[in-house]
Design a protein that fits this description.
It is a single chain. The strands form 4 sheets. Strands 12, 13, 14, 15, 16, 17, 18 and 19 form an 8-stranded mixed beta sheet that branches. The chain contains 4 helices and 19 strands. The chain is mostly beta strands.
């Protein structure tokens, strides 16, 4: 078990009459030892990363404690002395390790530090203030977290909910940001998103996205070698890289068959070595095939594979080895990244 030093667990208290804004700036421990009366327990290098009601900067830890006491539903604080940053925390959650951060449960501190707001009954979302005559309540934070579909917080220390705060988000994988990446907590207590996370365009125009691949079926009659070239340049003039389709599963095969209206080339061939079928895209051997009955049967004269139905006198599409100079449509493919 780790033994904590005096500076890692401090038991302190503050007299009710102490002017918090005038003392202990930048958390001077010598200052803390004055007027000791009641315990306030600190956990060093520990922080709560969720349910942050408010985030305040350029204040001392003692000011942070008081802000927690006057904020409805506050149960504790995080304090980062390097940034003079204070987090006012809601429901107590599991703590996580974080360098240069201090956590403290507010119940360990002297309640009289809240001054005239010691016994406030402000509603959730409000904080107490003293107007010179009576304690009153005013909106301080949004009760709920922002609703940001397909997005996650981009805040280094977690999302906070101050009135007027604009917290930063980033889109999840496969989504892209439109407009400014912020959500603002309005004075009404509601959030206003300044952005949308929209699904990325997975395939160019005319291409169809299925199972992380883009497909384009072309019914222009060309030889197999010409189809190879056409797929390479058809992706677009700036981004070459398409290839004749590599069909790797029954699911993929069934979907392609459902789209076909005529025979079409795919990338399988045995041009270099008779009987050793490989895909033109990466020279790999097929792990899945869907040969028509009695196929392949062309031996050295038929080295290129196509989907075939009517020409092969079949009622359904399947794979056929054909002469590479036959004129057919073709199926192009590229992976979406």
């Amino acid at each position: 078990m780790k033994v904590l030093s005096v500076l890692q667990i401090c038991v302190i208290s503050i007299s009710g009459g102490l002017g918090l804004k005038a003392v202990c700036h930048k958390d001077n421990l010598d200052c803390w030892t004055q007027n000791i009366r009641q315990q306030g327990i600190l956990q060093f290098e520990r922080c709560q990363s969720t349910d942050i009601l408010r985030r305040l900067i350029r204040i001392s830890m003692l000011e942070c404690v008081k802000e927690c006491m006057i904020t409805s539903h506050c149960t504790g604080i995080n304090y980062r002395h390097l940034w003079l940053m204070c987090d006012i925390l809601g429901d107590a959650k599991d703590l996580t390790s974080e360098m240069n951060c201090v956590y403290s449960a507010i119940k360990t501190w002297d309640k009289s530090m809240a001054g005239e707001c010691e016994y406030h009954t402000c509603n959730n979302g409000d904080k107490c203030f003293f107007d010179g005559e009576n304690p009153k309540c005013e909106p301080a934070f949004c009760v709920d977290s922002p609703y940001a579909p397909n997005a996650v917080s981009a805040e280094r220390f977690g999302t906070y909910r101050n009135i007027g705060a604009a917290v930063k988000f980033k889109c999840e994988h496969d989504y892209e940001m439109k407009r400014q990446p912020y959500s603002e907590c309005q004075p009404s207590g509601q959030w206003e998103n300044w952005f949308l996370c929209v699904e990325k365009e997975k395939c160019s125009d005319e291409w169809t996205f299925v199972s992380d691949k883009c497909y384009f079926i072309v019914y222009e009659n060309v030889e197999w070698q010409q189809a190879v070239v056409c797929c390479y340049i058809r992706l677009n003039v700036k981004e070459y890289g398409g290839h004749l389709a590599k069909v790797e599963s029954e699911l993929e095969d069934s979907w392609l068959i459902s789209q076909l209206t005529d025979d079409a080339w795919i990338g399988l061939n045995d041009i270099e070595n008779e009987g050793l079928w490989h895909w033109i895209s990466d020279n790999s051997r097929p792990n899945y095939t869907n040969w028509l009955l009695a196929e392949p049967n062309g031996f050295e004269t038929e080295n290129c594979v196509n989907y075939c139905k009517d020409y092969c006198e079949k009622k359904f599409y399947g794979w056929n080895d054909g002469k590479c100079n036959r004129l057919l449509g073709y199926i192009c493919q590229h992976h979406f990244i």
